[in-house]
Structure formats: structure tokens, C-alpha cells
């Protein structure tokens, strides 16, 4: 990013509220001294920046000051088009009408030359999304519930059975071409991951009453990595590392080891072990579970069941 673009971006960030020199330096990967020089240059250009010292200090703009709408550069146009083209590759996406209106607005405000350059770049660079065929009729309702913190009564078809649950969605994300929803299950008393296309029905409901085993209000779900969750420790061979590095959920949990392999360390609810077993079985001899004992026992039973099937 050149200096002019950085100065413009600083003003746009300050429109959103107070920013410290450290925040700006980290955001643009420059030194704090460079930030100080940038702020001084902006003030010399007539930008009304207020500087406040002290622990709660930072930089803000004068009230009611805003920068006029700026024209996107060719590279910015490409990045926006790349992001939209990647979303379109998903089998089903939320806000379809809004996406079409955004494309129409982009065509109206972006210079024709920039659009041509962006199209040429899109022929060279692409974010690959696996092709899937499914429908997610409840995805916008799940997004709204996650935003508002609302509870839902759902019917869900897992790989084993059809269940009825009371969920409070936390967030939605896409991975491997599928949409997933992290939600707190009142019946399971923990946070779980659900495939959005496997919801059979979704309807609003009131917050459930505490269960007999929980006299207190419904507890907040524990996030992955919470210190109270059991730690999973898995030794990987070099080939196991190569496979797990591509895993969107566990790839970042790989830690280097003294030998050619590595250690996979993370914390997750025991209810996720059945999902983890399938990953471990697919790795075969390239993964060895060191802890916890409950996961080792389940993996041993699953491996014996497979061996007995072919004995």
C-alpha cells in the first residue's frame, strides 16, 4: 500500500471512532513513528484530527466531519469481485436479492476500465469452492437468530437419526462448500456444530426453562480451547502433518516436534469425539492419540470393530 492510500485509509478508520497509534501501526504493518508522521501530514492537509493523550487517548475526527465517497481502484475492484464470485460458487447463499442489487450498484459506480481489468485478473486468480448440490432454506433465519440471540425449535437430521432440539445459534460459517451453524443445544447442554442443509424445520421459541440437573439459568456454552475442556494430544507423522494442515478446523493446532512429525493439541467438548474418530481412522498409522484416555478407548473400540468386520 502506498502512502496516499494509507493516509486515505486512516481517515476512513477514524470516521468509525477513536484509534490509537498502536492500532493503526498494527493495521497497516508500519512503525508507530510512521503513524505519527502520517497524522501530522493529515493535519497539514486540513483534516481536523483531535489528538488525546493518556491511557485512553488516541486519534479522532472532529464531529460531523466525513470524507467524500472515494472511487475504488482497479485492485480494490478486483478484490470485491473476487469475494463475490467466491460466494456465488456456494450451492446456496443468503441475501440473494441484496447480492444482485450490490452487483448492479457496482456496475454503475465502478469505471468501465477498472471492471475490464478486474475481469482479466479473475481469469488468472480464483478462490476454489467445492461444488455441492443442496438447499439451505433456513439460513437467513439462523443468521437473524444468531444476531439477536434468539432460541429456535428445530428438527435436525444428523448422520444417525432425526432429532428435535432447542438451539441458540452462535455463528454461521462456510467450509468445504457447506454452510455450518455453531449453536448451543439446550438438550445437550453444550455447543455443537450443525450442517445448515440438514435442518428439516426451524421456528422461533421462547427461552427454555432450566433442566432438573441445572437449577441455574442455561449456562453459556464453552468455546473451543476453554481451559476446563479436556486437552486432545495427537502425535502426527510427517505425512499426517501434510494431511491435517489442510483441515479447516484443526490445521492451526499443529505444533512442531523434535522429530520429523508434529503434535496436534487442542481442547474440545467430548461430544465432538465421534466426529474426531472418523478423522483419526482415516489417518491410520500416521496419527497416535496420546490423550485423553476416553478418546483413546473410543478409537480402540472403533478400530477393533472395523478389524472384526474383515476377520
UniProtKB/TrEMBL annotation:
<dbReference type="Pfam" id="PF08279">
    <property type="entry name" value="HTH_11"/>
</dbReference>
<feature type="domain" description="WCX">
    <location>
        <begin position="231"/>
        <end position="306"/>
    </location>
</feature>
<dbReference type="InterPro" id="IPR036390">
    <property type="entry name" value="WH_DNA-bd_sf"/>
</dbReference>
<dbReference type="InterPro" id="IPR051534">
    <property type="entry name" value="CBASS_pafABC_assoc_protein"/>
</dbReference>
<protein>
    <recommendedName>
        <fullName>Transcriptional regulator</fullName>
    </recommendedName>
</protein>
<dbReference type="InterPro" id="IPR028349">
    <property type="entry name" value="PafC-like"/>
</dbReference>
<feature type="domain" description="WYL">
    <location>
        <begin position="139"/>
        <end position="202"/>
    </location>
</feature>
<dbReference type="Pfam" id="PF25583">
    <property type="entry name" value="WCX"/>
</dbReference>
<dbReference type="InterPro" id="IPR026881">
    <property type="entry name" value="WYL_dom"/>
</dbReference>
<dbReference type="InterPro" id="IPR057727">
    <property type="entry name" value="WCX_dom"/>
</dbReference>
<dbReference type="InterPro" id="IPR036388">
    <property type="entry name" value="WH-like_DNA-bd_sf"/>
</dbReference>
<dbReference type="InterPro" id="IPR013196">
    <property type="entry name" value="HTH_11"/>
</dbReference>
<feature type="domain" description="Helix-turn-helix type 11">
    <location>
        <begin position="6"/>
        <end position="59"/>
    </location>
</feature>
<dbReference type="Pfam" id="PF13280">
    <property type="entry name" value="WYL"/>
</dbReference>
Amino acid at each position: 500500500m502506498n502512502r496516499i492510500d494509507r493516509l486515505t485509509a486512516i481517515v476512513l478508520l477514524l470516521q468509525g471512532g477513536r484509534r490509537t497509534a498502536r492500532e493503526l501501526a498494527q493495521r497497516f504493518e508500519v512503525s508507530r513513528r510512521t503513524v505519527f508522521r502520517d497524522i501530522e501530514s493529515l493535519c497539514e492537509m486540513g483534516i481536523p484530527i483531535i489528538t488525546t493523550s493518556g491511557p485512553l487517548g488516541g486519534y479522532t475526527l472532529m464531529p460531523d466531519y466525513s470524507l467524500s465517497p472515494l472511487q475504488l481502484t482497479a485492485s480494490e475492484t478486483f478484490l470485491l469481485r473476487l469475494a463475490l464470485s467466491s460466494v456465488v460458487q456456494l450451492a446456496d447463499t443468503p441475501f440473494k436479492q441484496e447480492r444482485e442489487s450490490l452487483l448492479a450498484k457496482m456496475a454503475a459506480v465502478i469505471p468501465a476500465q477498472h471492471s475490464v481489468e478486474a475481469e482479466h485478473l479473475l481469469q488468472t486468480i480464483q478462490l476454489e469452492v467445492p461444488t455441492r448440490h443442496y438447499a439451505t432454506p433456513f439460513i437467513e433465519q439462523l443468521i437473524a437468530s444468531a444476531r439477536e440471540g434468539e432460541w429456535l425449535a428445530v428438527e435436525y437430521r444428523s448422520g444417525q437419526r432425526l432429532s428435535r432440539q432447542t438451539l441458540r445459534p452462535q455463528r454461521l460459517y462456510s467450509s468445504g462448500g457447506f454452510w455450518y451453524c455453531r449453536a448451543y443445544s439446550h438438550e445437550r447442554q453444550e455447543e455443537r456444530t450443525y450442517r445448515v442443509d440438514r435442518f428439516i424445520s426451524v421456528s422461533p421459541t421462547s427461552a427454555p426453562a432450566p433442566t432438573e440437573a441445572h437449577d441455574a439459568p442455561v449456562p453459556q456454552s464453552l468455546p473451543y480451547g476453554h481451559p476446563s475442556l479436556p486437552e486432545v494430544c495427537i502425535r502426527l507423522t510427517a505425512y499426517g502433518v501434510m494431511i491435517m494442515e489442510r483441515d479447516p478446523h484443526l490445521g492451526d493446532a499443529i505444533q512442531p516436534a523434535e522429530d520429523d512429525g508434529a503434535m496436534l493439541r487442542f481442547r474440545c467438548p467430548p461430544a465432538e469425539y465421534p466426529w474426531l474418530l472418523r478423522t483419526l481412522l482415516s489417518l491410520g498409522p500416521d496419527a497416535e492419540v496420546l490423550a485423553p484416555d476416553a478418546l483413546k478407548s473410543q478409537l480402540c473400540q472403533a478400530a477393533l470393530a472395523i478389524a472384526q468386520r474383515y476377520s
